[in-house]
Amino acid sequence: MTKNALDILGWCEWATFPEIGNERVNMKIDTGAKTSCLHAFRIKPFIKNEQDWIKVWIHPEQDSNREVIHEFAVFDRRHVKDSGGHITNRYVIKTPIIIGEQQFDIELTLTQRDNMQFRMLLGRRALAGRYLVDSSATYLLGA
To answer: Which stretches make up the Retropepsin-like aspartic endopeptidase domain (predicted)?
Structure first.
């Protein structure tokens, strides 16, 4: 544990993405996942300045068809095992995120989460050294 007290999260919280129009996303805290993931229902790769980029279509709100389109430099590609044991090769982006009072860069894999309750999972890499989780509580950092 660090010298400073860690913020406590409930099992679900809100996140804001400053570089994606300050979009707010409802997320589930998932201590079983190493990397965080964000819902993207369409991904189109392209080359920009001789680097790999992707154009991403996101539905930031559950039960809404409102689309947000954003372009990201590809940070990495990773094989990820989902909760059903299926392995997929996912794009990884790096972008700033705000959770409560903390802002930091986060690595996010992108995957289709239309059938899931939450548009984002916050994994262990993002939690480490920043947060503790109270699994009996929700939205401890506010709505």
So the answer is: 8-140
Give the pLDDT score at 3. Answer: 54
Q: Which of 1, 24, 4, 26 is nearest to 13 (CA)?
A: 26
| CB-CB contact of 79 with 87 (8 Å) | yes
Q: What local confidence, expressed as pLDDT, does residue 1 receive? A: 42
Alpha helices in 1-143 (DSSP H): 124-127
CATH classification of the domain holding 110 = 2.40.70.10
CA–CA–CA angle 19, 22, 25 (5° rounding):
110
Which residues span the domain enclosing 126?
7-134
Which two tokens mark 50? 């001789």
CA distance readout (Å), 27 to 13, 51, 52, 139: 6, 30, 27, 10
pLDDT in tens, 62-78: 888 899 999 999 999 99
